[in-house]
Amino acid sequence: MSEGIAFYAIFFAAIFTNNILLTNYLGMCSFLAVSREVSTSEGLGGAVIFVMTATSVLNWLAYHYILVPFDLVYLRYIVFIVIIAAFVQLVEMVIERISDKLYASLGIFLPLITVNCAILGVSLFMVIRNYTFFNSVFYGLGSGIGWTVAIIAMAGIRQKMARSRVPKGLTGAGITLIIAGIMALAFMGFSGMIKIT
Description:
about 0% strand
C-alpha cells in the first residue's frame, strides 16, 4: 500500500498532516503532564524521537524476520511492547548518566514512554500500512519529530499563559485541553497537503 508513497512524503506527513499526537490523539497523557516547561518538553521530545525511530526499526525487523516467517503475527502486540520497554529502559539509563537535572525533571514520565501509546501506534501503523523498511524509519522519525513539535509548542504557550489572566474556571486542565484542541485544528489545516492512510 505504501509502495507509491515516497519516504519524504511519509516523513513530512508524519510531522504535519498525520501528526501522531494532534490528529491521532496518541500519547496525550505525557503531552498534557510534561508540557509545563519548554526545557523539560525538549528533553522528553528528544527521548521520544530517539525511541520512536529506533523501535520502528527494531519492530519492523522483528515483524518481518521473526513474526511473519514463523507465523507468529498474533504475538505482535506483546513483542512490540517488550522491544519498546527494553529500549526505553536503555534510554532511561543513558539519560540518568548524562543529565541528572533532565532525569529528575522528567520524573515518572520517562519510564512512562514505555506505555506511551504513540510509540506503539507508530509500530502498528507501519505494519498496517505495509511500509518498507526505509519508509518505516522515516515514519518513526517524522512521528517523533511531530510529537516533539506539538509538546514544545504546548509548553511555550503554557509558559506564556502562566503570566496571563485566565478565567478561574478554566485554569489548569481546562485551558490546557482547549489549547490542545486549537492546536489540533491548526494541524488539520495541513491535511490537504499530504495524506498517508
